[in-house]
Structures are given as structure tokens and as C-alpha cells.
Amino acid sequence: MSNYEIVFLANPVLSDQQLDETSNKYLDFLKTKKSEVVNFESWGLKKLAYPIQNKTTAFYFLIEIKTEEVSGLSELEILFKRDERVLRWLVTKMDKHAVDYAVSRIKRLKKNKEESKK
Description:
Layout: E1 2-10, H1 16-32, E2 36-52, E3 55-67, H2 70-82, E4 86-93, H3 96-117
Antiparallel strand pairs: 1-3, 1-4, 2-3
């Protein structure tokens, strides 16, 4: 199985409900393509380095998956192209160093969450 990282930017004018629908749409699609979702993060509203479609901010989402279905990723990119709610996306294959870093980053985030609850 190969590991992939998917980052996409959603339109900043979307409501919370529309953002949830958008992210769940892609998570459900990946699950139907026999992909294991390792990590999903919503990074919130961030300022863009340059305007995209006259927008200066966007909602950032990160999905890390394990899959053998590379054709599913092509279909995912077609869905991104057709969706007006998505401004940009990037799908990258992770090498072993990126996977190790992602695992340590997730552990660190969980540890920080637990410490902040105390």
C-alpha cells in the first residue's frame, strides 16, 4: 500500500455545514475506493499567499490515506475539478521519511491535546 497526502482549499464563503458536507464528500469517496483514511485535519481559515478567484483566504483541509487504488485518486482529482467549492488541491505520494514525519506529528498533536485538557 502507498501513502498519499491530499490538501485542498475550500471557498471561504461556505458555511460550517457546507464545509462539513464538502469534506465528508471526499472522505466518503475515498472510503468507497478502498482507501484507509489515516488522518484528517481541518486547518481552518488561512490567508492565501496570492489571490485565487479573487479570494484572499480559504479553508484548508488535509487528508492522509493508504491505498492501492491509484485510479481512485484520478477520479478524486476529477471531482475536485468539478466542485465549485474547491479552489485548489494537491495530491502527493509520501515517501518513507514523509510517512515517519506524519506519524510523529500526529503523536505530537495528540499529546498536546491531552495536555491541554488537563
